[in-house]
Specification:
Helices cover 14% and strands 57% of the residues. The protein is mainly beta and 118 residues long. Strands 5-6-7-8-9 form a five-stranded antiparallel β-sheet.
Length: 118
């Protein structure tokens, strides 16, 4: 049986697939995690369940702009340019490898948690 809250959508002229997976946290709070695979099904960016996808916009043949929130802090909203050919992302003028994406945003959550005393 397939996971009922998981969707796939081809992007960038069918060269890549956007994977989304909705997960319920805390009394009906839904987070739309996302990841990206190449057309052969190889993960370029594994699904992140702590990033809540709001919008994805195709920029050119290899790049997308992604707007998302970092769960559990909906006020931590980011626009990130992801270059799928280079396997990099740009956020706040920093260019990093996609493999560093989850750690980069986990540090943002940890910083906010410390500020709030959580």
């Amino acid at each position: 049986m397939e996971y009922p809250y998981k969707n796939e959508q081809f992007i960038l002229n069918g060269q890549y697939k956007l994977l989304t997976e909705e997960n319920e946290y805390r009394m009906s709070h839904w987070v739309k995690g996302f990841g990206i695979q190449d057309k052969d099904g190889i993960d370029i960016m594994p699904i992140s369940r702590s990033l809540n996808l709001n919008k994805l916009e195709e920029l050119d043949a290899n790049r997308v702009n992604v707007n998302f929130e970092v769960y559990p802090f909906a006020f931590l909203r980011f626009d990130v340019v992801i270059d799928l050919a280079e396997k990099t992302f740009i956020c706040e003028e920093h260019k990093m490898l996609l493999s560093e994406l989850d750690n980069f945003f986990q540090q943002k959550v940890d910083g906010e948690s410390a500020k709030l005393g959580i």
